[in-house]
Structures are given as C-alpha cells and as structure tokens.
Description:
By secondary structure, the chain is α/β, with parallel strands linked by helices. The chain has one domain: 3-Layer(aba) Sandwich (Rossmann fold). It contains 10 helices and 8 strands. The strands form 2 sheets. It has a 6-stranded mixed sheet, with helices on both faces. A two-stranded antiparallel sheet has the order 3-4. A hairpin with a 2-residue loop joins strand 3 and strand 4. Helix 7 (142-158) runs parallel beside helix 8. The longest helix is centred in the last third of the chain and has 25 residues, at 223-247. The chain is globular and about 50 Å long. The termini are far apart. The model is unreliable at 1-10 and 12-32 (pLDDT under 50).
Amino acid sequence: MNRLAVVAARVLGVASALTWLAPTTSAAVDEPPTSSPTQVLIDAYGDSTTLGITCSDGHCGPQGRNAVSYLQQALQAHDGDRVRVTNYGVGGTMASQLRDGTGNRRAGPTAGLPWRERLAASPARIVLINYGINEVMQNQTPEQFYAAESSLVQTARALGKEPVLQTSNPMPDNRLNARLAAMVAMTRRVSAEQQVPLVDQFAYVSGLPDWKSLMSDGAHPKPELYRLKADQDYRVVEPLVRRLLDETR
C-alpha cells in the first residue's frame, strides 16, 4: 500500500470508528442548551477536527483540549457565562451530510433532520461550519462542496443565524493537501460571495513554522495546535458575540 493510501485508510478508519460519538459541550454539561435574552449560544458543526480528535501511539480519540473548548474558555473569560459554545462535531462527516441530515443520527436529538429543520430547532445565534477534509477522503468534487456550503450558509442566514465559515487545517501529506486546497478555495469563495465571516485556518496553520510537528496524524492537530486554532476563531467570533450582547442591553 502506498503512502497516500496509508494516510487515507488511517484517516477514514479514525472517522468511521468515531461516528457514534454524541456531541460534547465545552462547558461539560449534559442538559440541552436553552436561550435567554442576555445569552449568546453558539453551535459548532464540523468533522473530527471540530469534535477534537487527537492521535497518540496509534490510538485516536476525542479529548477535552480541542478548539471548541478553548474558544469557549476565551469567550467566557471575556464575556462571562453569557456565552456558551456547543460542539456538534462528528467524525467522518461532510458538509453535504449536515445539509441533508444523513450524518451521525446519534449526535443529538435533531441530528437526523435536514439542516433547515435542525437549525430552526436550535436557539443558537451563531453557527460555526468547518468541513473539507472528508470531502477529500470521499472523493467529492470542489463543486459539490461549494454547493453544500453555499446551501448551509443561505439557510442559516434565512433563519436569522450568524454563520461563520472555517477552512480546514492543512494535511501533512502533500498530495492530499493539494486536493484539500481546492476545497479551501470553495470555502473562501462562499465567504466572499455571501459576505460571511471567515476563519482561514488553512492559511494560518500553513504559515506556522514546522506546522507538521503540531499534527498528531494525517488530519488531526495536537492540543497545542487546537489552542492556536481557537485563537484564530476568537478573533472572528468575539466581535460578533459582543455585538449580539450589546443588542440585548
């Protein structure tokens, strides 16, 4: 098996083993989120890099030190308990599955619903969207990815939500990463066309010195890189949170 096939098999193996996992909240609470006039709730949707998978010694699994939990820590340090982020990342999933409601049906009571119905039932004011890696692994075309992300953003806007797009972190394998770059270009295109805030993690991480040493395997960051990614998320999300909180005063 060549190196590309090994990387692909490993990433897909991790994803398939983790698709049963339920969503986690960075606040480590079990009750479903509820809204109040003075709260800003944020839903984070994405693949295993949203869920927070890290690999060590050949074993991969979700852990609390992920970008979503770090983002909540930063937001609550600045704005207190008025902000809450819920992690709906599911390993192995794609944007089209979120749109169609065909991803992991165990990830919350509304996970099997199409995006419009699921989002209509959510009290979240802001939705983070992070996909691209599994589109590469499942041989989707950039055009298919563009259509899925465009639909997710349009629906979120129609329902009064604030969508925020995130590009995927890069992948160490050069050939896979070149294909991922084409997906990243589609996310940037949707952001520009629909004037949606963008966290360009692909560009940021790619510019870090020796960034590959911060990856735990062919797709998933180590906790220290998740923290750096959360810093980038915070720069884009916190002004939105502050504006929404100001509107409630």
